[in-house]
Amino acid sequence: MLRVPFDELHAALRRAMQQLGLTEDRAALCARLFAETTRDGVYTHGLNRFPRFVETIRNGSIHIHAEPTKTTGIGAIERWEGHRGVGNLNAHASMQRAITLAKQHGIGAVALANTNHWMRGGTYGWQAAEQGLFALCWTNTLANLPAWGATTPTLGNNPFVIAVPRPGGHVVLDMAMSQFSYGTLAAYSKRGQPLPVDGGFDTAGNLTRDPAAIESSQRALPVGYWKGSGLSLVLDMLAAMISGGLATHQIPRDPLRESGLSQVFLAIDPTTIADPQELSQIADAILDSLHQATPADPGKPIRYPGQQTLQLREENLRLGVPVDPEIWHQLNPFQLS
After folding, report:
1. What topology is assigned to 66-177+223-273 in CATH?
2. Which UniProt keywords apply (predicted)?
């Protein structure tokens, strides 16, 4: 891996976005979201995802000039239409709208239909937490996860995000309903490394840590076995029903043509019901209790969701952001062919 300064990565991505046809402001924001994802160590959904992003623009799955529009709403809840626009820009706008509603009503909800892959879901949790709000958001996906007891994928791995603001470091849970995302499987496979725990089944139906075998079988393991399978199902139902958009079974199964996703963004302003200092004390006490747990491996201290992100962010800003040399050389300079 190469290390490049964050500003250099952002600038290269911004130039590439503009060459793809995004307007200057939208190119800058889209590039920043990609660059921040890479900076925070989620390499599979940052720069490493850029080649697929380019392909989905070229094949018409992403409409680069489309922006979300409100279709209906009452009080603190609204429906928006994504027009198959750029996924991370649509998601960023939707979370910001949910935040605005929450500041008016204490809670805000935006259901977004007909959008595209939002890249790193945790982005929108951090977005809310950095403005002092709790957040919950999720998306459905193409069918890439077998229901528990099935051998063929009928569910999505439907990432789910919960964010808790905290002065000492936000807590942000960002998880897919599969034990490992397909991007993570691909990363392990490329490095020729086994997964740290079982991640799915091989073609013979055996649990395995071999990422290539799981990619081949398309039998990723739901988190919590039947529990993750059930949670994936209800998240899909909620997203499609509240937004009025597509469900997983209606989304194209080709990863390069995955489009028309349904997403939900919830924001809660805790200051409407509680004192910020009291909230901070509660959060700190919970995390202090967590850190007092005896680790199974003394060399691996217990950490909360988002803690490693903060550590990687500091390291990568100081030393440079790790990038795949092959993708970096494709990006800088980026030329449309």
Report:
1. Ribosomal Protein S8; Chain: A, domain 1 (3.30.1370)
2. Oxidoreductase
